[in-house]
TrEMBL record:
Its EC number is 2.3.1.225. This is S-acyltransferase. Belongs to the DHHC palmitoyltransferase family. Residues 298-324, 348-419 are annotated as: Disordered. Pfam families: DHHC. The DHHC domain is required for palmitoyltransferase activity. Its main location: membrane. It is a multi-pass membrane protein. It is found in: Endomembrane system. GO terms for molecular function: protein-cysteine S-palmitoyltransferase activity.
């Protein structure tokens, strides 16, 4: 059965639901991320928000706190799903080097054979916004990376507008999921702020009932734990949100900021703060270049070598000439064999019982009435067909006949000398 693309994928990604969802190789870290989000929210809803329902009697405003935290948590989880379960912008890898590699190929001696080796420039220049930018060749994916593309060593893929690989979402962050990643981080920051604020508000209500902060904290330790947890989390997600706001405003990626910060390079992608934000949040997300559920299409085999019509005609001409030569040789052998057999028959008939020699015409008549001539002819032709690589191979019958004729001639010559 034909396999699908996700089944033969060379990257380190993990697929579920028959290739409909794609994750990074460290997708198990998503479980930790989910627990860090869901567990604090459950504690808040059961131990804090439930006690605030009756603190705002007007219009039942206390229920709004519970609804807001649940809806906002679902929104954060959806953004996490869009960030980690979709193609971040993977560039399809090639099955062979680009065509320009073959144009400048050289030969390297390996043993006694000459094997071609690919030699071509590892970088080339392309124009971006009127400026020349160098792009590198990826030996793993066998392609020249597009501008702002980089190869992720964890996922083993080239990703367009590669930002970084985030272990908390278990996926690369690139062109197709950067928007959702930023919204996830910023929404998680707002969720932390909301939970921290409502927990602090509940402590304030308890202070009015018990008089001191310590008694209020003893009355609701869950609120204290949530406040500490949210405060620590804000240093991470809040700081990450601020850092990415700076990157979006200057149109940089995390990879470019850490790698080229010291080089003081000109940022050719910066189009102004407003346009940079519009590019990230108001442009249509490009469709994926990979159809992971498609069936793998085998490459068409190279057409076999077919000689031209002139070569076929020449080979046919050589074959015909060889057959004609064999036939001519066979005819010559036939004539030689017939002549020698005529002489032998004449000699044998002359030695008959009556001792009277017989006429050569009678011998010819006897020969014509018998079946020897066709046999000799077929044997002669068969011997000509046995010719191989320019040498003539005679059948054993012809060789035996020739030897008998030679011996009879020697016997006749000796008999004449005795007489």
């Amino acid at each position: 059965m034909a396999k699908r693309v996700y089944q033969v994928w060379r990257g380190s990604n993990k697929f579920i639901f028959n290739g409909r969802l794609i994750f990074g190789p460290d997708a198990r870290s998503l479980i930790v991320t989910l627990l860090l989000i869901i567990v604090p929210v459950v504690i808040f809803c059961t131990l804090v928000a439930r006690n605030l329902l009756h603190k705002f009697p007007a219009y039942n405003a206390g229920y709004a706190i519970l609804v807001v935290v649940i809806v906002f948590t679902i929104y954060v989880l959806v953004l996490l799903f869009f960030t980690s379960a979709r193609d971040p912008g993977i560039v399809p890898r090639n099955t062979h080097p680009p065509e320009e590699a073959y144009e400048s190929s050289a030969s390297v001696e390996v043993g006694e054979r000459q094997t071609p080796t690919l030699q071509f420039p590892r970088t080339k220049e392309v124009l971006v916004n009127g400026f020349s930018v160098k792009v590198k060749y990826c030996e793993t994916c066998m392609l020249y990376r597009p501008p702002r593309c980089s190869h992720c060593s964890i996922c083993n893929n080239c990703v367009e507008r590669f930002d970084h690989h985030c272990p908390w979402v278990g996926q690369c962050v690139g062109m197709r999921n950067y928007r959702f990643f930023f919204l996830f981080v910023s929404s998680a920051t707002l969720l932390c702020i909301f939970v921290f604020s409502m927990s602090a508000l509940y402590i304030k209500f308890l202070m009015g009932d018990y008089g001191t902060v310590w008694k209020a904290m003893k009355e609701s330790p869950a609120s204290v734990v949530l406040m500490v947890y949210c405060f620590i989390s804000l240093w991470f997600v809040g700081g990450l949100t601020g850092f990415h706001l700076y990157l979006i405003g200057t149109n940089q990626t995390t990879y470019e900021n850490f790698r080229y910060r010291v080089d003081d390079r000109l940022n050719v992608y910066n189009q102004g703060c407003l346009n940079n934000f519009l590019e990230v949040f108001c442009t249509k997300v490009k469709p994926s270049q990979n159809n992971f559920r498609a069936y793998v299409q085998e490459e068409a085999p190279r057409p076999p070598f077919r000689p031209s019509r002139e070569e076929v005609d020449n080979s046919d001409g050589d074959r015909r000439a060889k057959v004609e030569d064999d036939l001519e040789i066979g005819d010559d052998l036939l004539k030689i064999s017939q002549r020698r057999n005529f002489e032998e028959l004449e000699h044998i008939r002359s030695r008959g019982s009556d001792g009277l020699p017989r006429d050569s015409s009678e011998a010819e008549f006897d020969l014509g009435s018998g079946q020897q001539a066709p046999t000799i002819q077929s044997e002669a032709r068969h011997s000509s067909w046995g010719r191989r690589s320019g040498s003539l191979e005679l059948s054993p019958e012809i060789l035996a006949m020739n030897s008998s004729v030679t011996e009879s001639r020697k016997y006749r010559s000796q008999k004449e000398e005795i007489r």
